[in-house]
Design goal:
heterodimer; A: alpha+beta; 10 helices; B: alpha+beta; three-stranded antiparallel beta sheet; 16% strand; disordered C terminus
Chain lengths: 311, 110
């Protein structure tokens, strides 16, 4: 059963009672929530994710609770709080911003907890079992590009984290929504009629944010890791035609490692994992402005690459 | 510790550097500090030599078999190699070898 298969009443009861558990790639999440508006968001954006039914045999990776004020603030500019394992983290948001609070809080939880992975601040998409990592600073367009590629049939692994398993060298999907910001929201709405976006949340610390539901095909394959094959560092530059420039591997290493949240924590395992990604991938800087052209350029690059690999 | 051109340098004991060689440079992970460094020649060649045995800048130059054509060129190369020693020391991947007791005594009395 998927989250969308639960009636609103059933979903609300679970969230207010024992909580709701579902899988997100290698993680299981246990969520409690008492904010009604958030329930609608969950159905719309996470509707395709499979519910873990009681009795719960395994320990959830993340016990998350969204709570609101219990005092006079319930009536005057109410807030939403993010709790992980019963402890409040992050500054509260306005209560009607519960969805971005949840997404950022969960990102915070993964970044701080999932140290069995080398966590790279990358968007990741895949064609079959061959993954493309998109590292990039905020504003580089990695989420927009990731969303567009996912809408063109690529598998969405994540718009936020490349979860690289040091032992295998594989990246694991979470198939969570793509967080689009500001102009990217309209760009993706215009890009494809298949883009299923949630409501806009304005005046967040990152401007206006909206979330794109992950494609069902990506959710179905969320337990299937992929092998890093291309690393493309995007840079949106107004008026720039799409240009891919290969990066020398020794410099690419620094590009990949610099985007890791827990490189120092994993020590030599992180070094070896990054070295493997760099050795086995083709790595580019990618400047672009037009999204259609960008997607076509990346498609062509990967097709040529695959054609060269064939005997 | 008094450091001079005669001081011998070495990769610290117990520091098993991890190397990843690419076409034009080498990434080195230092497990003692948890830091990663990108090195190019000639620093890379110098580090490889110091990993084998303690050496002074002068013996490194001899080992590299640099063709010296003039006294001026000689001074320039020595200065550059010395600068690389200082940089590698600052990165924490080489260290000066302590002088032997007798040498310390001689230094103190000289």
């Amino acid at each position: 059963m998927n989250i969308a298969d639960l009636s609103r009443g059933e979903l609300t009861n679970r969230l207010k009672g024992p909580g709701l558990r579902w899988r997100s790639g290698p993680f299981s999440i246990h969520l409690k929530n008492s904010i009604n508006q958030f329930t609608d968001y969950l159905t719309l954006i996470y509707g395709g994710h499979p519910v873990i039914e009681e009795p719960w045999k395994d320990i959830a990776d993340f016990h998350i609770q969204l709570t609101t004020n219990s005092n006079y603030r319930r009536f005057w500019r109410p807030q939403v709080f993010f709790q992980l394992d019963g402890v409040k983290h992050l500054a509260p948001f306005p209560r009607d911003h519960a969805p971005p609070m949840f997404e950022w809080g969960w990102n915070f939880s993964i970044a701080g907890r999932a140290n069995h992975f080398l966590i790279l601040h990358n968007a990741v998409i895949a064609k079959g079992d061959r993954a493309m990592l998109l590292p990039g600073i905020p504003g580089s367009g990695k989420s927009t590009l990731c969303a567009a590629m996912a809408l063109k049939g690529w598998r969405l692994l994540s718009d936020e984290f490349a979860l690289l398993q040091p032992e295998s060298g594989l990246v694991f999907p979470t198939a969570r929504p793509v967080a689009l910001k500001n102009q990217s929201i309209e760009i993706i709405r215009d890009f494809s009629k298949d883009a299923l976006l949630g409501p806009d949340f304005s005046k967040t610390r990152k401007g206006t944010v909206a979330h794109m539901r992950p494609p069902d095909a990506s959710i179905k394959l969320m337990e299937q890791p992929a092998r890093p094959t291309w690393v493309v560092s995007p840079s949106y530059q107004e008026g720039q035609s799409a240009i891919l420039e290969q990066i020398p591997k020794e410099h690419a290493f620094l590009l990949v490692a610099a985007n890791a949240f827990n490189y120092e924590t994993l020590g030599d395992n992180a070094f070896k994992a990054v070295a493997r990604v760099v050795r086995e991938s083709t790595i580019f800087n990618f400047r672009y402005s037009n999204l259609e052209e960008a997607v076509a350029t990346l498609e062509m690059m990967t097709q040529n690459d695959e054609a060269q690999q064939k005997p | 510790m008094k450091i001079s051109q005669e001081t011998q340098w070495i990769v610290p004991q117990g520091c098993s550097l991890i190397w990843e060689q690419f076409d034009n440079g080498c990434l080195i992970f230092n497990p003692l500090s948890g830091t990663t460094h990108l090195l190019f020649d000639p620093a890379l060649e110098i580090l490889k030599l110091l990993q084998q045995k303690p050496m002074t800048p002068k013996t490194v130059i001899q080992s590299l078999e640099l063709a010296l054509e003039s006294e001026e060129q000689n001074r320039e190369i020595v200065a550059n190699v010395w600068k690389i020693f200082v940089d590698l020391d600052r990165l924490g991947i080489i260290q000066p070898l302590p002088l032997k007791t007798t040498e310390i005594g001689q230094s103190a009395t000289s």
